[in-house]
Amino acid sequence: MIKFFNPGITYQKHKQEFDEAMQKVLSEGQLILKKEVEEFEQALAEYIGVKYAIGLNSCTDALYLALRGLKIGTGDEVLVPSRTFVASAQVIVQVGATPVFYDLDGVLNFTKKTKAIIPVHIEGAFDVNFAEIMDLARAKNCHVIEDAAQALGATQNGKRAGSFGIAGAFSFYPAKILGGCGDAGALVTNDACLYRYVKDARNHFKDDARDWGVNSRLDNLQAAFLNVRFKYLPIILARRQCIAAMYQEGLNFLKWLKLPPHTEGRVWQDYIVQTKQRNELFEYLKINEVETMRNNYPFPVPKLPLAQKYEDETLRLPCNENLTNEEILQIIDIIKKFQ
């Protein structure tokens, strides 16, 4: 079986480095908000090109705390795409605001209540000219909080995802481009006030009880693991680019299969193909021992027409950096024989 995702291979590749980094944390007994977390935050901020990064439990918490830090709540509206993971909308509801969904055409319905936009860099891509989004947000006096959970390393016009808006949220869930060994996330920002709020909020505001906080600390073991992984991020991104190029070359002549656009600056969290025979292709690949994923976001987020059509017709092919060329060529050959 060609697995969609196999984190065990990642561990085995760099086992000695992972073991040494994590054993150091355990032997020193420095488990919460110590040096490893600070090192990871500094490395992430420098990589994204912002002043600050705060290690958190998840991208969900990053979005939630950003909204709270910007004082968005009851009576406010936040624009969010229909095609996204449920968490992008869930956090809006959690702060008491109302999510207003937009479709794949990118038409944004601003009102006097609109206080923020949460654009999602889905599958590691910028779907629009982001400078235009920023100009529109400034004209409407709205904050932009980037959901970059799937887009670490993606760029547009020389800027990295997460550095355009007032804040960017990242996920280090194991299946992400920079996957940890459990749940992890981060918020990045250039705004000093938002940075201080989120940094204090993640630890219950225990040193400054000016608000109700949460428990959303990135622990040192997780940070130690991520520090090892971070060194290999350029290799990870390059390998995923290579896999995407192999799919493009091997499948682009199939008239019944629509391939994803290879836009400049894209990173490949997933390689998603589109076909009206999605379910049949899924079962066919399963029979041929290729693990794929469908129904990417089967959650109670309102599905607008274009997003629903896309969701019904798309299939994620294996695209993680641990796949061999032989495995990718095997997948391509199997798909070619589908019709």
UniProtKB/TrEMBL annotation:
Q: Which GO terms describe its biological process?
A: polysaccharide biosynthetic process
At what positions is N6-(pyridoxal phosphate)lysine found? K176
Q: What is any Pfam family matched here? A: DegT_DnrJ_EryC1
Gene Ontology MF term list: pyridoxal phosphate binding; transaminase activity
Xref: Gene3D superfamilies? Aspartate Aminotransferase, domain 1 (3.90.1150.10), Type I PLP-dependent aspartate aminotransferase-like (Major domain) (3.40.640.10)
- Tell me which residues this entry annotates as catalytic: K176 (proton acceptor)
UniProt entry keywords in alphabetical sequence: Pyridoxal phosphate
UniProt family annotation: Belongs to the DegT/DnrJ/EryC1 family.
What name does this protein carry? DegT/DnrJ/EryC1/StrS family aminotransferase
